[in-house]
């Protein structure tokens, strides 16, 4: 797409071009610093053009492509995502002298048109503007005698533009009109203009209204019924109505008693969308002639009329999908929609009804976790069935009714607002339909940090490998998946977990776990670390289990639990393994299920909402101005993407680790502080003499500070860290070990004050903050996480399936310690040490020598 790119040089005669800019991309975030190489000036024959989410620096390109193709464009769609960014950018351009007679398109895009120009877009038949500042000055830009489809989504001053169109008495040929309000309240001006608009814009075939507040004046509905006899598709979605009857109170009661009062009964609608409690849908559709659809809270619904589209059960040319996914939907949804579906598709219902569609289909169904479609069925126990997602039928419906489905999004594609989880503003009174919505839990800064690192590919997962465990305990957090990672990161709950998607058995004939080194396990875990969880695009849990077995020796197996760090800390993973161990010892009765409904308990609150993590002004200032370490400070190569994890492990024999722990006790230090100092000494033996200083980070469990009502065996992410600096000139194994122990004691005494995790709440944009670290030197040479050992299990015996040895490892990270050292002890007394590092950041040979040196020093104790 650059000046010398293939498209510009060889395909400048393109007639259709559609662009979508990813606002979370690190290159997008750096455009202000490095500029954009994109050019669109060669394209001068475009008939269809779409650009969603351009960067403000793309305005000039956008200006050129519109100006160069104004007379040829027939279809134009622009979504500026956040119009204030562009207006501010234009203001800066004006200060630089860009504001002259030749920047008409720039002024059009930023709402700065003052004088009506001559008509430019003479042949435009479809115009879709999202978050573009429109106004009266735009009416002469377009030929409204040709324009047949007009979409204004969250466009400031849309009412003034519509009012100007009516006031100018322009010839109109509109067939499709969509308005999404952007104000906090639907005022009298908007109400009046909308009502007049419905009188003036005759001949509409499709009308979609998404506004704030209910249409309390039923006269607007009457105007639609009286003035739009040609209307066939209609959607009405009050964005913040808190009443299950759309705020129409007594009107619906009267309409139920006397169907002739229903204004929609006088329309031949083939598709109807609204947001209200399912039981009120019956009031709307009973007196109508056409097919009506419904949506509850999610502002999306569709349907089709018999003869206008495919009858999925009668047309043999359509490939039907017999896999009914109705049972996989949350119980609340099934409970609320079953009466409606049974009546609508039953003998007393509407013979012409083909579809009931629920969900949020806007922005390519990004927020459509619980979307479903019901159609008539003569097979099975019900008179309806649920279409399989992404099946031929599903895609056909989406394509046929795309405009209606996308007309009323529940949230924006970016900068999604914080949904109300109390039920006060979004759930109908007395309704349990969206029980899952109460399971939408916003992540705390620590969880958002893990999610942001994973989104950027900086940190992918954490693995804990245990021997002899086979089933997963039921913890609520295991049904949570992070979504909206670039806006308002939060958890949603999966209604069902399919075991075949998360559990894999791998046979390794002839394989036997090694006593000190295990190359087979190292290779397997390295592959797992390089399989990231798919952000914002999956109904698969953010954890998985792999079981390594030797078919020739059934006396053991190795189980690997790989999980997303925003779900669990390492102690939680150990607890999960212990629960697996306990479950294994219990007798198994009945067949193994293919799927499991997760625990419906509420997720535990985030760390920051339960533990006070104060920060001092000096600490915040230091963090904000931390810069890069000096040249004598070793920390590997610069932070960079992508991350490919390398992994190697070693087990320290029981006798050696017993002697090492004894030496630590004699010196008055802990195993963790001793390991921190020992790793520093090992690095000092290997690094060139020019490096005199090295920093190690160490994880600290904050579980001891959780409220008393939170069980110590609860699964979640409750971890902090501290940093310790070591100087080659004064380095002493036991002296520095004692200093590190004092640092640990002081960190725990301060209860999280000025801890790095506490600083995260001062970071306004974690994605950008992490992205800006790339290309800079890190501070920490290594990061140690010591998870300790397993809890005693006096009630379990070896034949019950005891966990013998444990290996804990973490993915390499582009934004923390260059080498990650993970320690865990099994019941066999061995200490497992897992070493991970980013390929290309630390030499493999250095890490292997580091491992060798650590093992030797422990053996010398």
From TrEMBL:
InterPro entries: Alcohol_O-acetyltransferase (IPR052058), CAT-like_dom_sf (IPR023213). This is Alcohol acetyltransferase. Residues 412-432 are annotated as: Disordered. PANTHER family: ALCOHOL O-ACETYLTRANSFERASE 1-RELATED. The keyword rRNA processing does not apply. SUPFAM superfamilies: CoA-dependent acyltransferases (SSF52777). Keywords: Transferase. It comes from the Eukaryota. Transmembrane segments: none annotated. The keyword Transferase applies. One of its GO terms (molecular function) is N-acetyltransferase activity.
């Amino acid at each position: 797409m650059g000046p010398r790119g293939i498209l510009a040089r060889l395909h400048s005669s393109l007639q259709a071009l559609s662009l979508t800019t990813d606002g979370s991309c690190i290159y997008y975030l750096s455009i202000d610093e490095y500029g954009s190489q994109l050019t669109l000036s060669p394209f001068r024959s475009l008939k269809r053009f779409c650009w969603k989410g351009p960067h403000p620096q793309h305005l000039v390109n956008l200006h050129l492509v519109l100006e160069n193709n104004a007379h040829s464009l027939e279809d134009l769609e622009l979504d500026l995502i956040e119009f204030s960014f562009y207006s501010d950018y234009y203001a800066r351009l004006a200060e630089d002298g860009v504001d002259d007679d030749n920047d008409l398109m720039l002024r059009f895009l930023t709402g700065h048109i003052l004088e009506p120009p001559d008509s430019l877009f003479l042949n435009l038949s479809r115009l879709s503007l999202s978050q573009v500042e429109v106004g009266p000055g735009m009416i002469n830009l377009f030929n409204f005698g040709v324009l047949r489809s007009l979409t204004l989504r969250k466009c400031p001053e849309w009412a003034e533009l519509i009012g100007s169109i009516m006031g100018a008495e322009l010839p109109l040929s509109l067939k499709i009109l969509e308005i999404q309000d952007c104000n906090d309240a639907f005022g009298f001006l908007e109400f009046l203009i909308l009502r007049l608009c419905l009188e003036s814009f005759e001949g509409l075939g499709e009308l979609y209204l998404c506004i704030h507040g209910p249409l309390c004046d039923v006269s607007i509905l009457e105007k639609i019924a009286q003035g739009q006899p040609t209307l066939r598709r209609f959607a009405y979605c009050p964005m913040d109505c808190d009443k299950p009857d759309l705020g129409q109170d007594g009107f619906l009661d009267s309409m139920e008693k006397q169907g002739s009062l229903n204004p929609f009964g006088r329309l031949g609608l083939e598709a109807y969308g609204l947001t209200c409690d399912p039981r009120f849908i019956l009031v709307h559709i009973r007196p109508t002639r056409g097919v009506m659809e419904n949506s509850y809270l999610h502002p999306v619904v569709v349907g089709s009329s018999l003869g206008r589209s495919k009858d999925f059960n009668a047309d043999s040319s359509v490939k039907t999908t017999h896999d009914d996914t109705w049972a996989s939907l949350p119980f609340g949804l099934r409970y609320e929609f079953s009466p409606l579906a049974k009546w609508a598709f039953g003998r007393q219902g509407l013979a012409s009804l083909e579809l009931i569609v629920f969900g949020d289909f806007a922005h390519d169904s990004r927020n459509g976790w619980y979307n479903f479609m019901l159609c008539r069925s003569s097979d099975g126990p019900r008179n309806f069935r649920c279409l399989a997602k992404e099946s031929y039928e599903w895609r056909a419906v989406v394509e046929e009714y795309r405009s209606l489905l996308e007309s009323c999004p529940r949230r924006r594609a970016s900068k999604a607002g914080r949904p109300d989880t109390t039920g006060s503003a979004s759930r109908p009174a007395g309704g349990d339909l969206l029980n899952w919505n109460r399971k939408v839990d916003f992540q705390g800064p620590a969880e958002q940090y893990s999610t942001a690192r994973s989104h950027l590919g900086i940190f992918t997962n954490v693995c804990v490998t245990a021997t002899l465990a086979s089933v997963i305990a039921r913890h609520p957090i295991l049904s949570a998946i992070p979504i909206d990672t670039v806006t308002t990161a939060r958890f949603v709950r999966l209604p069902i977990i399919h075991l075949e998607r998360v559990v894999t058995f791998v046979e390794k004939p002839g394989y036997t776990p090694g006593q000190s080194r295990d190359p087979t396990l190292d290779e397997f875990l390295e592959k797992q670390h390089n399989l990231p969880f798919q952000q914002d695009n999956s109904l698969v849990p953010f954890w998985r289990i792999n079981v390594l077995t030797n078919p020739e020796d059934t006396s053991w197996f190795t189980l690997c639990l790989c999980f997303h760090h925003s779900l669990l800390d390492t102690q939680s993973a150990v607890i999960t393994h212990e629960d697996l161990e306990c479950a294994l010892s219990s007798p198994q009765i009945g067949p193994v299920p293919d799927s499991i409904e997760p625990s419906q308990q509420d997720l535990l609150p985030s760390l920051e909402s339960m533990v006070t993590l104060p920060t001092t002004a000096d600490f915040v200032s230091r963090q904000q101005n931390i810069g890069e370490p000096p040249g004598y400070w070793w920390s590997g190569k610069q932070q960079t993407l992508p991350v490919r994890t390398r992994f190697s492990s070693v087990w320290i024999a029981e006798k050696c680790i017993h002697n090492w722990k004894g030496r630590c006790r004699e010196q008055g230090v802990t195993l963790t502080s001793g390991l921190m100092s020992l790793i520093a000494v090992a690095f000092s033996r290997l690094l060139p003499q020019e490096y005199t200083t090295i920093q190690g980070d160490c994880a600290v469990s904050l579980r001891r500070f959780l409220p008393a009502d939170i069980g110590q065996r609860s699964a979640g992410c409750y971890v902090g860290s501290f940093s310790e600096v070591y100087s080659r000139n004064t380095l002493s194994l036991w002296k520095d070990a004692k200093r590190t122990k004092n640092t640990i004691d002081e960190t725990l005494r301060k209860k999280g004050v000025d801890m790095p995790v506490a600083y995260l709440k001062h970071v306004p944009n974690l994605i950008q903050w992490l992205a800006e670290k790339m290309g800079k030197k890190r501070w920490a040479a290594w990061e140690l996480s010591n998870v300790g050992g397993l809890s005693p299990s006096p009630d379990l015996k070896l034949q019950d399936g005891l966990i013998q040895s444990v290996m804990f490892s973490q993915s390499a990270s582009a934004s923390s310690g260059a080498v990650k050292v993970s320690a865990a002890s099994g019941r066999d007394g061995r200490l497992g040490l897992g070493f991970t590092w980013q390929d290309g950041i630390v030499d493999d040979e250095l890490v292997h020598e580091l491992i060798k040196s650590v093992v030797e020093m422990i053996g010398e104790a």
